[in-house]
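Sample intake sheet
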Amino acid sequence: MEIYCRLLESNPQDVNALHLLGMAYHEEGRHEQALGLLQRAIAVKPDAAALYNSFGVIQLALGHYAEARTALERAIALDPAPHEPYSNLGTALNHLGATDAASRCFEEALRRNPHDGTSCRHLGKLAEMRGESGTAEALYRRAIASPNSARAGLLGLARLLTGRKRFEEAQNVLQDATARFPNDPEMWFQLGAAWVRVGDHAEAARQFERSLAIEPNSPIAHDQYGLSLVALDRAGDAAKQFREAVRLAPDRPEYQVHLAVALRRLDRLAEAIELLQQVREAVPNMIEAKCELGIAYRRRGDPERAEPLLDDVLREVPNHGEALYELAKLYECQKKIGKTIELGVRLLKENRSFAPAHLLLGTALLERLAPEQRMRMTLPERAGVTEKAVSHLAQAARLAPSAETFGALGNGLMRAERHGEAFEALRQALSLRPDFAPACIEMGKAHLETGNTEEARKCFRKAIEHDPNRAEAYYELSRFGRFDDADVVAKLRELLRNEDRPVAERMLGRFALARHLDNQKDYNAAFGEYLRANAMKMELRGKGRPEGEAGPGEVNELEAGRRHIEVFQKEFVEARRGWGDASELPIFIVGMPRSGTTLVEQILSSHGRIHGAGELIHMSDLALSLPFRLKTDMRYPRAVELLDEAMAGKLAAEYLGELHKRSHSAARITDKMPTNFRHLGLIALLLPNARIVHVIRDPMDVCVSCLKQNLEWPFCDMQAVGRYYRAYERLMGHWKSVLPLQILDVRYEDLVANQEPESRRLIEFCGLPWDEQCLNFAETERAVQTPSKWQVRQPIYRSSVGGWRKYAEHLGPLMDALARS
C-alpha cells in the first residue's frame, strides 16, 4: 500500500494507483475510503470499464445495490467482453429481487468463462430456491472445482443435501471441506451442525470445539456447542459455553434462555427462574422464555405459576410441542390423567413420530385412570390400557432409543407383569448410559419385586452415586434398614435442605430419613420425619388432587360404609342368592393396608395349586362401572339395587376372565387388594362361593404402619386413618352378620407367633391339602409389587408386633380418633 501512496504523492491523478489502493482498502474492509479513491479514478478516466466494475464491487460490499447496478451496467456498456461485471451485476440484481435478470447475468458470465465458480454458486442458489435441486447440485459441484468459489460451493452443496435429507452425503461434503480449509472455523461449525442433524451430539460437540479453537469469539459456536452438551447431559459444561455466548452477545436473549435451560438441568432452579424473569422483562413476548419459565416453575413443584405460562404459550402457538408436553407432564404430576392423555393425543396428531408424546402417553396410561374414564370400560378394555401403554413406550424407545425411553419401557413392562422383558429393556437403558440413575432405580425395583434383594440394594446405591439428588433412590434403599454409609446420610440431608427440589422429592427423602432414624432406634426423631413427610403428602394433595378423588372433608369412608350398610341388608342379599358364578377360584384377602395381607398371600401362593395375583383393582372397577352399565344416575352402592341376575353373571364372567389370564391351571387365585373389604356385598352377589380371608391387626400397629408408608389420604393423617379404621371395622362387622360368604379371620399377631398352625388353618379354609412349601414362603419365586415386597422375602419376624409403643408420646391424635370413632 505504501508504494501506491508514494505514487499518489507524486501524481494525485495516477489512475492505476488510485484503483489499486482503493481495492486494497476494500480488501481490508475500509469500503468508504475505497469508494472515494475509485470516484477520483473515474473522474480522471471516465471511460475505463474496469474502474466501474471495481466501483460496483465496493458498492455491493456497502449494501448499495442500486448504485452497484448502475456502475456495473456502465462497465458492461464500456466493455462487454469480461465475465466479471456480469457476475457482479447478477449479484446486485439478485439482492434487488430481480432474480430472472440475475440468472441471465450469471449465465452470460458462465458463457464467457465456463470456469467462473462464483456464477456457478449463485446460479446453484437460485436453482435451489426454485426447487430445481438436481440443477442446483450440479452447479454447486462446478463451483467447488473453482479455487475462488470452492468454499462457498461446499457450504452451498452441504446445505442443499441437508435440505434433501441426504445427511450422510452432506457430512461427506463437509468432511472434505474441513480437509481443504482446516483453518476455517465455519467449516468445522457446519460439520458440527451436520452431526446435530443426525442426532450425534458427541461428534457434533467435537467439531464445535475445533471451530472454537480457531475462532474463540464466535457466540453462535459457543451456543451450539452448549446445546450439544445439554443433549449429552453435560449441563455444567454447557452452562460455561452459554455464559460465554451471553458475554460475547449480550443482546441475544435466546442465549440467556439456553443458559437457563442448563441451570435448570443442574437443579439450580432459583438462578434459572431469576434469569428468565430478566429476559421476560426485556423481551415480554419471547415465546421460548415464557415456555422455559413455565418448565422451571413446574420442575420446582409450583404448578400455580407454571400452568398459566404454558397455557399462554399455547394460546399464541397452539401446536407448540414443548409447551404441550410440559403442560401434559404438569397434569400428570397432578394426577389429572384425563387431561394428560388428551394433550398426549394432541401431540401425536401433530407428529406421529414424536417420541416424547409416546413416552408421555405410555407413562400416563400406566397411571390409574380417572373414575369417569374407568366407569365406562369393561375389565378386558381396562386391562388393554396397560398393553396400550407398553405399546406407546415401545414406540418411544424405537423412535428415540435412549436410557430414558428404555427405562420407561422397563417400568411399563414390570407393571404389565412381563418381568423378563422388563429386565431386558432396563439392561438396554443401562448399556446406553450406565450412569442413568432412573434406570438404576427401576432395575433395583425389578430385582426387589422378583426377590433378588442384594442386587436391588446394589442398584439403589449406584443410583445415589450417579445422582445424589435422586430422592427415590434413598427411599428405595431405606427399605433395607439404616444407611451404613455416613456419606449417603450426608447427601440425603443436603438434598432435604435444597428448597429448590420439588415437594414430592423432598417428601420421599423425608420418608427415607425417617426409616434410617427408625433403624438407629432414634424413634422420636424418626416419627418427626414421618410427620413432616406426611404433611408434605397432604400439601401435594391440596395442590393436585387426582381427578375424582374425595378430599378429607368430602365423601369419606364413614359415609361410604353407611351407604353399603343401608343397601346390603340381609333380606336384600337373601333375595339374590344363586346369582353370579359359583366358581371357587377366587380368594379375596382383605383388611386394612399394612395389616399383613401380603404375608398371607405369600404363604398361600407358595402352595402348588394357588396362584397369587397381587392387588387387583378389578372389583373396584366393576363397582365403579355399575351406574354406566345400568344407565342410571344412582351411584354405587345404591346402583346395586338395579342389578339383575343377567348382569351379575356378566360381571362375574368378566372378573373370572381376568383371573384366568393369570393362570389357567391354578385351583385358587388370590386377589389381595385390601380395600376389597368395601365390596364384599357386591362379591357376595357375583361370586357367592369365593373365599374371604380377613387379615386383622392391632389397630394402633396397623394405623402407625400406614403412617410410616408413602400412602395416600386417609393413611397420611393420624385422625383420618383412625376414623377410617373404625369405619372399616364397623363395615366388616356388618358383612359378617348379613352375607353368606365364607369369611376366615386371620389375626396377624397369631400368624407371626404360630406360623405353621395358622398356615395350615389357611390352607384348610381354601379347601386344599397341606403343602410344606407354605412354611418356606420367603423362597417362593414370584413378583410382589406392594410396599411389603421387601418384608415377604424375609422369614417371619415378630418385631413389628406392638411397634406403635415406640412412638406413643406422639400418637395422641390417633388414639383420640380411634376412641371417638
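Comment: The radius of gyration is 37 Å. Strands lie at 586-591, 610-612, 668-671, 691-696, 742-747.
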